[in-house]
Design goal:
alpha+beta; Yope Regulator, Chain: A; 6-stranded antiparallel β-sheet; 2 helices; 6 strands; 25% strand; globular
């Protein structure tokens, strides 16, 4: 089941004050970025924030779940927390700070055709 556009729009609006927030559609689901870092996934209309030590102050390990089969565990945010924009912004901001800066992507080499 793919995430509805209305779900990602609502979540992006709720966390807009966390930093430079954007999202990207991937295989019917979404990756949420803050300041250039992937901080969360939205899959099947559920919010999953990357696990960090800072994140453990917001949700304990009982909220760990994989966003899709075969994925590492993230912290699954209960829907009743989505309306608390201040809490979500703090959670996203702390997670963003805790994550490493993404490595620059290497440029693809052109194919040698003979």
């Amino acid at each position: 089941m793919a995430t509805k556009q209305s779900t990602i729009d609502f979540l992006a609006e709720q966390i807009q004050n966390a930093g430079n927030v954007r999202y990207q559609k991937m295989f019917g689901e979404y990756a949420l970025y803050c300041d250039g870092k992937v901080v969360a996934l939205v899959c099947d209309d559920q919010l999953f924030i990357k696990k960090t030590e800072a994140g453990q102050h917001f949700l304990d390990s009982s909220y760990e779940a994989p966003p899709y089969p075969g994925a590492k565990n993230y912290l699954q945010v209960p829907e009743d927390k989505w309306d608390d924009a201040d809490w979500l912004v703090d959670f996203i901001r702390e997670t963003t700070i805790s994550l490493p800066i993404p490595k620059p992507k290497k440029k693809k080499q052109p194919l040698n055709r003979k």
